[in-house]
Amino acid sequence: MVNTETFIENAVERIKREASGKTLIALSGGVDSSICTVLAHKAIGKLLVPVYIDTGLMREGETERIKETFKHVNLQVINGKDRFLQALKGNHRPGREKKNHWRNIHTNF
């Protein structure tokens, strides 16, 4: 069984060793990126630059919840709604929609 306290201590120490200067982290609001953001903030504090892209595709109220939850880490929010929704316009093939979605995420960063 994983000892949570030991895991957190080890993760924070590793981030401290590997992060140099300001460090950008992408926050989607999911479990993985949320945990990584909290651990990184614990490790490097104000040197962390967490970024969330509002794609306009989240569930109602989800973006507001993310903003509220992560306001203490100085979350930067990029309004990408127009770009993401425009990229989906006319695309009716799921593979192409997903490819365009990820291309837009990379472009925004």
TrEMBL record:
Coiled coil: none annotated. It holds the Pfam family NAD_synthase. The keyword Oxidoreductase does not apply. Keywords: ATP-binding, GMP biosynthesis, Ligase, Nucleotide-binding, Purine biosynthesis. GO terms for cellular component: cytosol. GO terms for molecular function: ATP binding; GMP synthase activity. This is GMP synthetase. The lineage of its organism: Archaea, Methanobacteriati, Methanobacteriota, Stenosarchaea group, Methanomicrobia.
